[in-house]
Design brief:
single chain, 68 residues, alpha+beta, 3-stranded antiparallel β-sheet, elongated
């Protein structure tokens, strides 16, 4: 039996780190999407305020399997 997967793009952020932003994004995706199988970071950026990093942002491409 073969399956069909879909990829969706999500953007998440964290005040702590890129890794934390990824963890938050995956956690949230798993609450909404069924059968999440993987993800990759498409983009990273930071928001800077007064010369300091204030927020880490990641764009994730999340892969999940569609139900039959």
């Amino acid at each position: 039996m073969s399956s069909v997967a879909r990829v969706t793009e999500i953007i998440c952020s964290s005040k702590k780190s890129f890794e934390d932003a990824v963890e938050k994004g995956i956690s949230r995706a798993c609450k909404t999407l069924n059968d999440v199988k993987g993800a990759w970071v498409k983009d990273q950026k930071v928001d800077i305020e007064n010369g300091k990093v204030r927020r880490y942002r990641v764009t994730l491409m999340v892969t999940f399997v569609l139900k039959d």
